[in-house]
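Hello forum,

I keep getting stuck at the same step: I have a sequence, I want structure tokens, and every attempt I make locally crashes halfway through. Rather than fight my setup again tonight, could one of you with a working pipeline run this one for me? It's a single chain of 420 residues.
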Amino acid sequence: MTVLRAHYDVVIVGGGPAGLAAAIGARDAGCSGILIVDREKEMGGILNQCIHSGFGLHNFKEELTGPEYADRFIRRVRCEPGIDILSESFILNISPDLRVTLMGSTIGLCEIKTGAIVLAMGARERSRGAIRTPGYRPAGVMTAGLAQRMVNIEGLLPGKRIAILGSGDIGLIMARRLTLEGCEVTGVYEIMPYCNGLTRNVVQCLKDFDIPLHLSTTMAFIHGRDRVEKVTVAPVADDFQPLPGKAWDVDCDTILMSIGLIPENELSRQLRLQMDPITGGPRVSSTLETSLPGVFACGNVLHIHDLVDNVSEEALRAGAFAGELAQGRRRPQDNIELQAGDNVRYCVPHTLSPDREISVYLRCIRPQKDCVLRLGNFLEKPLRLAIPSEMIHLTIKPEILQRFYGTTLRIDIVSREDAE
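Reply #2:
Ran it on my machine without issues. Output:
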């Protein structure tokens, strides 16, 4: 059996890119007792099945595959003294005084005490049931992430003629991957009038392989009793309802759903944390601390990221703040409320403190060209293009925040003409 300490400075829930980076952040902050708990056998999370390149361009200044990116963090975590890794284990309960109940094949059932907890559980895919696609329930309908695991890890093909609903990044990447494996991808059908994946993935995965992208189009009916036989697709009106008179049938034996990710927050709800209905994750302060003192959140469990480099950067800060708290170093309380304004869907963190430089992440609601990101009346950042699929990062200096002490700070994305 794995021997655990009775007390850890920081316990990290999840061994993916966020959890690994949070452990390094806590170690750099001076903690000597850190525990990573993960339900999988191997560390790395979703990166283990992302064998395509494109990771690490920001953090390592080179292009890596998902396993290569994860390996760099895993090697450092394993080399750092004071970091324990507990795989194939679950956290059953966290009490308000930060007592953690664990269960695993090597430890049985046990309880440990910790000074701080970092939630880094990642996200899960939205499935067919979430959007109520009409039709039968045949074999061959699956999420794009499941198909990715089947092909890249299990060595199995989900089908030979594929239709993809939704234009999320995993769906775009799987369109390319399945084409390279000899499958025929009939097209990607997106209900919104714009693509929900990164621009580079649209170019590299669809345009370079002549895979059609149908915007403002959805699947109106799935045909097939035992196995998918075909799907009826139709353009949608302004209210996103299908237009039956313009529908057409597409023969296929497999449908991949790439319709977004949902933060994995069952444990957060069990802790009764204050949640943000827009992000699906907990509300956090500028130190990434949730409404329960001593519990921090980072990565896709907080809000959905499009780049793993941003996940690692955010998790390093969350781990460092958790480590400081575990050692008795608490930062000043936040006194500025951050509010999403015009064409801003959400912004994280939700509150700010003027005692240090703050990193803010946000997404726009609708695409907008030649615009300005405006923070109150004191800071403006020009943007060539703002699109919902690409997160915007803003760094705010403390001298600007001091002007808003004890007030609400609004962040907007406006046209250049309105800004002037």
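The longest helix spans residues 308-326. If your local run keeps crashing, start a new thread with the error log.
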